[in-house]
Amino acid sequence: MSQPYRALSDGSLPEVLAAMPQVREQLGGAFTQWSVQEVGDGNLNLVFIVKGPGGSVIVKQALPYVRLVGDSWPLPLARSYYEHMALTEQTKHVPKLVPKIYHYDRDLALIVMEYLTPHIIMRKGLIQGIEYPLFASHIAEFMAQTLFKTSVLAISAAEHKRRIWAFIDNIALCKITEDLVFTDPYRVAKLNRWTEPFLDDIAAEFREDEKLKLAVQKRKLQFLTSAEAMIHGDLHTGSIMVTPLDTRVIDPEFAFVGPMGFDVGAVIGNLLIAYFAQAGHEERPGARTPYRHWILVQAEQVWRQFNKRFLELWDASKSGEAYMPELFTDPQGAVAFAAEKQRFMRSLFADTVSFAGIKMIRRVLGLAHTEDLESIKDPAVRASCERKVLNLARRLILDADKLTGIGDVTIAARGVLAAQ
Amino acid sequence: MSQPYRALSDGSLPEVLAAMPQVREQLGGAFTQWSVQEVGDGNLNLVFIVKGPGGSVIVKQALPYVRLVGDSWPLPLARSYYEHMALTEQTKHVPKLVPKIYHYDRDLALIVMEYLTPHIIMRKGLIQGIEYPLFASHIAEFMAQTLFKTSVLAISAAEHKRRIWAFIDNIALCKITEDLVFTDPYRVAKLNRWTEPFLDDIAAEFREDEKLKLAVQKRKLQFLTSAEAMIHGDLHTGSIMVTPLDTRVIDPEFAFVGPMGFDVGAVIGNLLIAYFAQAGHEERPGARTPYRHWILVQAEQVWRQFNKRFLELWDASKSGEAYMPELFTDPQGAVAFAAEKQRFMRSLFADTVSFAGIKMIRRVLGLAHTEDLESIKDPAVRASCERKVLNLARRLILDADKLTGIGDVTIAARGVLAAQ
Question: Is the ipTM of this complex over 0.90?
Fold first, then answer.
């Protein structure tokens, strides 16, 4: 049944899907009745919506190159393998927060998944000013579960090493992050772009800001060496689909065993981008003030609820190679252990804040921008929003160890918004 | 030519070696002329000295169990594979500081190496009060080269991940460290032993010292998650063979990609054990005072020369995925980068000091003790030395972040020695 890889099209897809029993069942009818629409607007892959008499599915197929750039930038099809493996692991811990998998074909680098409807990409919702009352608790739950339960706080050393091994060859996708997130924005690089000429000054300033560059390189070293947990690796608001009541995390093809704060920082950093982008989307100045406030409350809630859930999982855990609970059973031990967990979370908070800042900068000065800002037509307005993103981001990176809590982050965000 | 695994003996070994051209050449003559002596006094393996008309070799063969404990504790033969791989990597960087490899047989879990003579295990030299004037610079060079050059400060992310992958399944040997070094000494464990009844009080005290236990667990987490460089993994003075002019590091079967400070801490911690053990070996009180002083100077020199050589290698490096030199080329950048390197080394120093303390404690309260202390016949004298080891070790672990340099460590050691 195995087929050699070829990029599929609207025309060739139905016959391929017809060979997959679970997909056939989901779509119903004969494959000739299925309609196909290619909708991929991401940077890397083909994405098809397939509809049949009985239902719909999403088909995601990796291309052997970066879609955003073209076939001059090859990229291994194996990313689909890592995506499927990560999704399978996430499904174990938070089945309701990820799409259901119907079929995976390794040769075709193709995953058939639940078609999420009426979900939209959260980033688009944030641009429209839509509130998602359950988002913060959902994403906090997603991160607490997937990060805690794939860490040695919960699992054996052997299981941890097996997972490191399983993801270690996802080198190409990690390298994209290493280059585009941690390096290019801080040097003259062909792939960089920003809103010219408005941001020329601050782009040059960042390339010469030694403290900033060193702080970012310290985090790059952490990204390269810290095998804390299986992370999503690209957890921005474009990797989250929402309705007011439901939240699903998609696209974990950047997954590997890395630093937890990279995921948490991605969520918070992208909320902060959305915060500053509102000025480009409001009908009149100030119209989005309540929504801006809502976004910052979400950023706070994401951290606070993540912090709470992570600690609850830790308190409930009886296993885990590190900090074995049996070492801290008497009352004094329990008190000291609780304090140590708080210390751990403060350290993770600093990681989070710093990675948030780093993710914000790459979206303004690097290759891949975000729709929140890109969709602002007036370049002067866009640049004004982007400059604020950069100013807050730099502060988060430089002050990561000094900020005492998420409240300090949102206060700083308000300060940057208010500043001239 | 491949043979199934079986533990070899004095009788069966020569015929096996006779099939290895490089070994045959080294030994000379016919295999019937070769003499074999099993000399393994380590915890894990068979070790044979084989002598022929033309020369000698050492043959190290893994047993499928822990020799110290017996076949009730199985241990994978694959550790020989990791040892050979680590030795091969070390040979690239410091060929003069490791034994030459003549042959490796994966199936037999057997490595044939240079017979080092008149080298002795450094620990035995320290017991005898012998000075090794080149030791500190040699071991500093060994560590600086092997740690720096297998880190992402020197190599690409892809090479780093390949090395993580290559060592990731050395799970069983890492697990020995996780259990015996980081866990058992801090709980009631069947394998623990100490000089009873003299140390019963402090052993109990350590099991109830919440701050100490948490500090050690924090380091265990680091050992489990920090993939900084290929480390030797068991770099105590029993893994170093010396003459006054030569130094060779042996036995890297615990190698994996882990935290650099674990190796540096092992060397310094074991020097500090030797320092406190002198009271059990001097002919009259005070006879070894100059030698004690010499040991502490070596501990200082090990750190200082390691620090110096590591920074020299870093300054000379043009590659490396983290802290790419091209980001810091202008004069201001160079100054800031130099300061960041100092910060990195301070952090590595804190790791080193803490791991040193942890390695010291496991040698007094855990399963595997060291000859420095074990060879002290009078249990009261031995316990007195061991108590000092424990007292300094605890201080190193708890104050790792406060100690400003290696001088603070040796001052603390003198303080503990002088205290009643």
Answer: yes
